[in-house]
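Discussion board: Methods & Data

I've been asked by a reviewer to show the raw model output for two of the constructs in my manuscript, not just the figures. I'm not sure how much to include, so I'm pasting the format here to get opinions. Each protein appears as its amino acid sequence followed by a line of discrete structure tokens. Is this the kind of thing reviewers expect to see in a supplement, or should I convert it first? Here is construct A:
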Amino acid sequence: MDRLDGSPGQFRNFKKDDFEADWIKVAECRFSQVYQVKLKLWREKCALKSFDGALCANNFYRRIIDEAHNIAKLKFKYIMSIYGLCSEATAVVMEYMSNGSLNNLLASHTLMWPKKFQMIHEASMGMNFLHSMKPPLLHLNLKTSNILLDDHLHVKISDFGLIHWEEGMSKMFMERLTARGNISYIPPETFTQCPDPPGTTFDVYSFGIVMWEILTQQKPYAGCSMTTVLLQVSEGKRPCVEMIPDEKPPECDQMVSIMNQCWDQDRRKRPQFSDTVRRTEALSEVLKIAGPIQNNKNGDMGQKSSYPWLVSPIHKLSLPEMPIFPSDNQNGQDGILSLLSQKDFGSFRQSVKKEHVYTQFSGKKSLLHYTVASGDSESVEHVLSLGAEVNCTTARGYTPLIIAVLHRFHDISSLLLEHGAAATQGDDDRWTPLHFVAQNGDDRTVRLLLDKGANAEARETTGWTSLHLACQNGHETVVRLLLSRLSQDAVVEQEEAQGRTPLHLASAYGHLNIARLLLGQGADPNASDLSLSTALHLSAEQGHNRVVRELVKNGASTNSADGRGYTPLHLAALKGHTGICRQLLSYGASPDSRTLQGWTPMHLAALRGHEAVVVQLESKGGSVNVKGENGWTPLHLACHQSEPEVVAKLLAAKADPNTTEDSDGWTPLHVACTSVSYPSVLHLITHHADVNALNSRKATPLHLAAQHSCVPIVKALLLNGADRTLVDSSGSTAVNVAQRCEKWEIVQLLEKGC
């Protein structure tokens, strides 16, 4: 291959000495390592992906060379550019993406909804471009770790075109995919050893899984073995859609619909990317706002909800990373950090001088911060011996001890404490080292800090203690350690700014053993936060059956109402937790208690289509004819939501099909016709609903069915005695309404009869 000079846009074969000496490893996987390198000639940062030598022996690298020539010609905003090869390092030289992979970002930051939608759209743009090639360029390796992010968090697809199908290679193809850790992204048809080569639908399925990861910020099939994943996917099971946060924009339902189509079991039903691009663009435009991400130390506190603090149980903190200083001056301050980043600790200790110790780097970081982050305790001790200030802070208030405990460097944490590190000193948000280790579940360091004087009752700026964090994250051993250092009063009275106790948090996240511990220490099961929610409200809403049982056994009130008038039974009914509803009713919960809007648990179960809950409530005396806001009954709500199974259960329980709501005099049949719910209409007619009932505007169900153009409903009404001559308050018959709405099929039906 000829070597070319010129711009980064030209394909060339680089030599190792084309790059500066500092190669910084930024990623590593089973088959390759990725380095950040800097070209001497262009002063341009690049990514160099070096492949394992064993792969090169079986012509893998030869295929990459052949493919890279073609891929390098592709230029598009949402796919990563390839500059050339470095044969000496068996590597591909690519565009450098400063914000790494989407996989890492999803784990370390909370993405706001507009940014999630934007990323989904941009990924679909990149994949649509690849599939628009003639023939389509298949990725076959699409996953969040192969979606990279530039300076402004825009998406670029990488690693496409590296996996190929060859005739008769079904088994080998599957082995290649699973060896790369792709099991969660492989469509079910691939498991069947189908002799057909993969097509574009393979990538579409993988994209569906990527969408789920972006929307939930979770990993698919977490903790499942490969065999379990194969079985679940083969049976049509997919990652749980309910893991998408409840407090989502309405447009999210449409995005979920796209996702469900992408991972359809039948590959023929999966959409083309050309269609997905249009649909995701529309959704992305609706939600477009500034400010893409926020750091997720205290969770997603900015998004409003009934319980805004119910956030991911993992609070993340971005750690200070080793900066890259490509300097030839190994004895200067840049060179000192470079030695640390290369983990050349012996040279570092020989080169470091007192003046380096007192140098302040970007973000007010000191050499001690960077040395601690390197993980080498000998180097830390050496820097301390040169007079480093053990309690120095960065611009955000991080001490070296905070850095050490975040990295779980136990020896370094001990060393710093021996040299006078303050166990009680917090960052700018007053998060102490104990807060961080309690959150992370590092019980070894918790013991160390408590023995060195850490304050178990210290509060960060919003009032959270270490016990709050340990309870939220389910770290039972840490909870036990903290409880051993707290008085009973402290356990009972610990509340953060919103009035939430450790018991609230343990209950909300379903940590049964921790809830038992707290109750055993005298925690009040009826303590309420500022929204008047108790621990029982939260565990009932989240579906934690065993925690609910523990709370009611310990005296939690089943009929306490929160600030909206919701009891725990209301919340369990709303979410469809039948077993919890049964428990609460058996412990005396009132089935007919009302919210401030007048809704009973029966209303909420009907609204959400939870037929088993409806049956459970009715069996315990819940009224099926109770009227809520504006006189709406559960039957009205079930008809409005097109929930025919619930309609049937309510009617079987003697719900009145002819009751009217207060404002417009609508019967459930009026509502069902407007909602175009044909099965609900049939259920109502079977139970003697009046097909000629008049609302306040004298409209009959037939008027409404004509307006909404549902032929089967119109036929059903006519067959059961609907009077087509009745006129509404405007003097219109049903056929007049159909003519005015240009529903000509309905007009013909009404004029000729059925």
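Construct B, same format:
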Amino acid sequence: MDARLIAMGAAGAAGLVLGGAVWALSGGHAQGEALDQLDTRLSAISTRSRPRLDRPSDALAQIKGRPLFASTGIPATTPESDVSVQLVGLARTPARTAALLAIGGAPAEWLTLGETRGGVTLRAVTGSGATVATLFGDRELMLGVGGPSPVGVAQGNPGGPPAGFRSPPPPASAPGMTP
């Protein structure tokens, strides 16, 4: 046999003998008793499950008895009287997500996610639109789609540019341009 193989076997046997001696000298028997005591305390803990109740609890009956939607005292309205909302602008940056909304014909104001104004709550902002919640449910608004411009309406010019607006001049390469 190889001398290295004999040395490995002898080292393993010596390690077992040395480890057992150190364990015995350090009070290994006392540690074993402490572990036995801990084991008996753990096995004494009951792990059985509690029996199910055959009857519903009083708390559950109280919760079930309450109305799902509480009355707010607001007079009932029809969907035709829902507030008008127009999406004018969007802001999506790492620091801010907001939408510029004109609510009920008022001047447009910035709303951040979760903010509520005039009964309209901003729920989500996408690349080309926003989702708002009103009293009659969620509505999706698209940028550039909707009624007249709130600026034009505010200045008495529904559907057109505001008073005093001048279009930019046509490009120099436009057909029909004469120098």
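Answer (T.O., handling editor elsewhere):
This is acceptable in a supplement if you add a one-line summary per construct. For B, something like: Confidence is low (pLDDT under 50) at residues 71-79, 147-155.
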